[in-house]
Design goal:
single chain; Rossmann fold; Rna Polymerase Sigma Factor, Chain: A; 2 domains; 8-stranded mixed β-sheet; two-stranded parallel ribbon
């Protein structure tokens, strides 16, 4: 299935910071067909460095989508039954308005004059897109990691617009450790002389800083066991240590490769803005009262976590589940066994597929009976 990325533009969007973006553009893709009463629509929300290309083969790049193993005919998000939408987040660099976009007031990229954004702002723009597609109520919003934050925000901010959510490997607010890892990445970028206070778009980009930020981030996506199985202490194309600061170990080579690969597809300023949005995210708006946040929502929840995920550990999903059960919310929970760490939601899909299929089918039946 070859898919094209589409774009929608809106006159303006008001942000949590008090700023207004005028105009604003959002990139998105769709898979499957919307039924006559627009009741089979599912919004899939991407993680931090994802984009709108979630499934199929990209018309432009010729590459499969980041969740292609989950979206398509007969898959977890079955496009023979459902109309699936995925959009690039506000602040991103893959077709949606972000710091690299042209500011119409100046004719130059926004760079660091781009307003600070939140997860709620991202969801607000998604709602505008859903409205423009003529969809009154989503059957489901689903996503992993930062995508899970967006799914939770949908349930709280627009409870009348979404029947169910599937937050995977996520949290209702960042811990100090999660904020700390993001800050290391931001400081790596801003310490690169090529960052130039964010004004690098007609110059050399801060590739070294962005590469290091990605290397740090990528370590958190894997587990100790998966790294041991994949790399161990194997040397890279040599039999002895080099006794220098070149590449000795396979894991060093891998991290450098991932860092360099990332630089070619992601904008450093988007990294700063999106990680800040993650850190600001708090479903309770700072009150700490998660039960109150959920109380106005009758959304169904399927919460999924993974045993080896230490970036978004299972206890954070369990906090959400405990609160929902305490207020008699409709919630199912599964902590899946996996060795892949945080990346498990992208690669360890067999059990995940069965859970999602069953949950969506039951939600569709309930919607039809209502």
């Amino acid at each position: 299935m070859v898919v094209e990325t589409k774009s929608a533009q809106f006159d303006s969007i008001a942000l949590d910071s008090g700023a207004t973006l005028t105009p604003v553009e959002i990139a998105y893709e769709t898979y499957g067909n919307l039924n006559a009463d627009a009741s089979n629509a599912i919004l899939v929300t991407h993680a931090f460095t994802g984009d709108a290309h979630a499934a199929g083969i990209s018309h432009d790049a010729g590459k499969p989508g980041w969740w292609d193993n989950m979206i398509g005919p007969g898959k977890a998000f079955d496009t023979d039954r459902y109309f699936v939408i995925c959009s690039n987040v506000l602040g991103g660099c893959q077709g949606t308005t972000g710091p690299g976009s042209i500011n119409p007031a100046t004719g130059s990229p926004y760079a660091m004059t781009f307003p600070v954004i939140t997860i709620r702002d991202m969801v607000r723009l998604q709602r505008m897109l859903i409205d423009s597609l003529g969809i009154r109520r989503l059957l489901c919003v689903a996503g992993g990691s930062m995508g899970g934050m967006q799914a939770l925000e949908w349930a709280v901010s627009y409870p009348d617009r979404v029947l169910s959510t599937i937050p995977i490997a996520t949290t209702w607010r960042h811990s100090a450790q999660q904020i700390a890892f993001n800050e290391v990445g931001r400081q790596a970028i801003m310490a690169d002389p090529d960052w130039s206070d964010g004004d690098y778009y007609d110059k050399k980009p801060p590739a070294r800083g962005l590469s290091v930020a990605r290397m740090v981030g990528h370590i958190t996506y894997m587990s100790d066991e998966s790294m041991r199985e994949k790399f161990g202490r194997r040397l890279r194309e040599k039999e002895k240590f080099g006794f220098d600061f070149g590449v000795d170990f396979e894991v060093e080579s891998y991290l450098r490769y991932r860092g360099n690969q990332f630089v070619s597809r992601f904008d450093a300023n988007s990294y700063l803005y999106i990680t800040k949005a993650e850190d600001y995210f708090d479903l309770t708006n700072g009150t700490g009262k998660l039960a109150e946040a959920f109380r106005q929502s009758d959304t169904r929840f399927l919460v999924i976590s993974f045993t080896s995920d230490w970036l978004y550990p299972s206890y954070q999903s369990q906090e959400i589940v405990r609160v929902l059960r305490r207020i008699n919310g409709d919630v199912a929970y599964c902590d899946l066994q996996s060795n892949y760490g945080h990346d498990a939601f992208l690669v360890d899909i067999a059990e995940q597929t069965e859970l999602v299929k069953g949950f969506l089918a039951s939600t569709a039946r309930m919607a039809k009976a209502a």
